Amino acid sequence: MTIAASRKSSSPTRLEGKFSGMLVCWILGLGSLVSWNSLLSIGDYYYALFPNYHPSRVLTLVYQPFALGTMAILAYNEAKVDTRKRNLAGYILFTLSTLALILLDLATSGKGGIGNYIGVCAIVGCFGVADACVQGGMVGDLSFMCPEFIQSFFAGLAASGALTSGLRLMTKAAFENSNNGLRKGVMLFLAISTFFEFLCILLYAFIFPKLPVVKYYRTKAAAEGSTTVAADLAAAGIGSQPIEKADNDAKQPERLSTKQLFYQNIDYALDLYLIYVITLSIFPGFLYENTGTHNLGSWYPLLLIAMYNGWDLIARYIPLIEKIKLKSRRGLMMAVLSRFLLIPCFYFTAKYGDQGWMIFLVSFLGLTNGYLTVCVMTAAPQGYKGPEQNALGNLLVLFLLGGIFSGVALDWLWIIGNGKF
Q: What is the pTM of this model?
């Protein structure tokens, strides 16, 4: 069967499997960050092992150069990279790296020390490479499908944080009074995370490409000149013969270059960059090290992380309500810039406020992060052809990761001069 024939036969049923596709996208999004969020959620364990090495800040700083550097290379070569191989490689690397954290801890009997810390940092670097493979690949792939898929994927990203926070609170409570309970809870927690990563491999390899709605959009993208979907179409049983357009005599217009796409969407790119500069300059380092001592003790930073993740997840569903979805490009930029006011708010709340105000601020940080991210990511690809949407998706993720890297670097400013650096 040719792609053209498959396209004609699938068009009337292009929405079949849409709900299943949204569910799979949600799980794939969860798998894209569950390993990293697991690492953040066991921050209390690493602070117990490495109290003098600022784990939440250092590990995040190690993670980001690998993620950003790999993403820059992949974004530059996105048209030449097979999406299926890229995403599967990312999920496999996530699975192996999360498993490696368990094996490293077992091999060292849960002891601290610089050698163990360097090993954890090396594994975190692998997380960064896997993140760039998966997040850029998935966003690029989903950008030429229905907007609900991207929204579901980004909701899954946030769900990974909410899920890991919830599981971490449960494992901490379950093992808190047992012998070596903190370590037991962490091992169980990482084992669950490894399972989720393995599940994503199976879903992406065998389920997602065979959904009718996915086959329709990938066939459509191939007809518009995309070469990155060939392996996924083959996995779905669709041949890779030359594309026959309905208008055979009409020459396909050339796609916009990545540079042209950047200039046309520079405001969206800056939106994502600035959203994550603010978020990561506060989360998670500030929450672990700069909020002081409170009645909740060691539960306090875990609660703050959980509140952020919970509201970030809820906010990513808000744009599904069209009436309150922010679509104006100017409005998005104004909303993003207004988040800079959170910096002085967090500073004065940590210095003079109580736990209630800090919990409120962290919730608002998560709410605005999730809402604005989905608004930008669903609006930007509209109006472009499949190959252009794939390129733009990769470009936007590059700026998102750039914002995370900058935010992580700026996060260190909170501890300079306070005797902790």
A: 0.85
